[in-house]
């Protein structure tokens, strides 16, 4: 059975080490970043201009010192399920043989909207919400809890304006 889902274990990118100066101490930055950020970071580190069409943001400010927040409020990932499989954590079957999962991860939460292709705005979608602070293994979907209703609305609104935003709204 295929087990593709948008959990932290799947979307995290570990081991990217960028250092502007040889011999500088390695620093772990706990902020949402995307792989799109690596190219503009390398450009800035090499004193090259960052092309205007590049979507990422340089990580140099995060590397050079304390900043109030990261370059992004959250990061986005997209996943495709190629067969009708249950949602791994709660055993619910997907309504059709193919679905896309769009994940928006902030420093504390992962919000996932699962959608059926060509019907992204239809009622054939459902959401997952995980509190990574209290549930780092993403085993308890809190999206349907009454106490999470306002948070789901907020995370939908906070999703970055990108081609994926329409899928998360």
Description:
- With 169 residues, this protein is an alpha+beta fold.
- Strands 1-2-3-4 form a 4-stranded antiparallel beta sheet, covered by helices on one side.
- The model is unreliable at 161-169 (pLDDT under 50).
- Strand 2 and strand 3 form a beta hairpin.
- The chain has a domain at 73-168: Arylsulfatase, C-terminal domain.
- It has 5 helices and 4 strands.
- This is Sulfatase N-terminal domain-containing protein.
- InterPro entries: Alkaline_phosphatase_core_sf.
- It comes from Emiliania huxleyi (strain CCMP1516).
Short account of what is shown:
This protein has helices spanning 8-11, 38-45, 60-64, 149-158, 165-168, and strands at 75-81, 99-105, 109-115, 126-131. By secondary structure, the protein is of the alpha+beta class.
The average pLDDT is: 70
The arrangement of helices and strands along the chain is HHHEEEEHH
Low-confidence stretches: 161-169
Q: Cα-atom Rg, whole angstroms?
A: 18 Å
CATH topology of the domain at 73-168, by name, is Arylsulfatase, C-terminal domain
> How many angstroms separate the termini?
30 Å
Strand order of the largest sheet: 1-2-3-4
Helix tally? 5
CATH class categorisation of the domain at 73-168: Alpha Beta
CATH architecture of the domain at 73-168: 2-Layer Sandwich
Largest beta-sheet details: 4 strands, antiparallel
- Helix content bin: 10-25%
Taken from the alpha-carbon principal axes, the silhouette is globular
Which band does the percent of strand residues land in?
15-25%
Please state the structural category: alpha+beta
What's the total count of β strands? 4
Protein name: Sulfatase N-terminal domain-containing protein
Keywords: Hydrolase, Metal-binding
GO molecular function, one term: sulfuric ester hydrolase activity
GO cellular component, one term: cytoplasm
